[in-house]
Amino acid sequence: MAESRPTASATSPGKSTSVQVKQSGNAISWLAPIACIIAGYCIWRFLMGNPNDFTTPGKGWFWPEHKGPKGAFNAIYEGGIIVPLLIGMLLMVITFSIERFMTISKAMGNGSIADFIRRVQFNLANRDVDAALRECDKQRGSVANVMKAGLRRYKEMMNAPELDTEQKVLSIQKEVEEATALELPMLQKNLVFLSTITSVGTLVALLGTVMGMIKAFSALGEAGGGGAAGDLAVGISEALYNTALGIGTSSLALIMYNIFTTRIDSITYGIDESGFTLTQSFASLYK
């Protein structure tokens, strides 16, 4: 009876992978939206709606009906209760853009990813795995993390005579895939807020505009006569503040989303190239 060959997992009994699971809290995902909405209301109510900046201050605490804004900043207040929601969404875009910028910049590592991969390829061609690992320590990005995990398994496979070349390559490939599965979610986390605001921001602004138009035409119908045309024009201009704020917020969210996805795509490409480099190098050098 033919003896079956050992599988790739037999090389490291009791240890399936050298990749460490990243421990990262996600409190910002639910704390930031709440804080931004509250901050948006405070800006709208207490800064834009400062009674001293209106000729006819209104009464009430939650939504006083001020009239006669003294400046354009205060005129936004009269856009209605949808305005603080739009301001909160704008603050969310800014908050998550800063958070993603910091995370993705760290994931890009030090220096060019393409240059890093070329240096690793050079070291592997010279059979110097330790030098390739030192390059990973210098680069310190997501591509380097994946490459380092693969190189560790690469080094183990160099001293595994009980496996054939195909099994060793599969083991390296599996290690790279596991490392990639841990890196990519960290890069894409919280981008859903930017993509959602891109579409929802305009719809919320449209809701505020429609509410303002309904209010303006209702007031026109009650007043009657040509003298109410001026009040109608003022009401329409107030309603359109919602549109302007919503379009601006959605546009910023779309721009930032595209910037971050482009940078993530470059990291993903580097990770794919890293896996190809390791498997092809091992297959050609250690047949």
Note down, in words, how this protein is organized.
With 287 residues, the chain is mainly alpha-helical. It has one domain (27-285). It contains 9 helices and 2 strands, in the order αββαααααααα. The chain has helices at residues 28-48, 72-75, 82-108, 113-125, 129-139, 142-158, 165-188, 191-223, 229-285, and strands spanning 54-56, 67-69. The protein has a two-stranded antiparallel ribbon with strand order 1-2. Helix 1 (28-48) packs across helix 3 and helix 6 runs antiparallel to helix 7. The protein is rod-shaped and about 95 Å long.
Mean pLDDT: 87
Task: Write the element-wise H/E pattern from the N-terminal end onward.
Answer: HEEHHHHHHHH
General form: rod-shaped
For the report, how would you describe the main beta sheet? 2 strands, antiparallel
Question: What's the topology here?
Answer:
Elements lengths: L27 H21 L5 E3 L10 E3 L2 H4 L6 H27 L4 H13 L3 H11 L2 H17 L6 H24 L2 H33 L5 H57 L2
Antiparallel strand pairs: 1-2
Task: Offer a concise description of the structure.
The protein is mostly helical and 287 residues long. The chain is built from nine helices and two strands, in the order H-E-E-H-H-H-H-H-H-H-H.
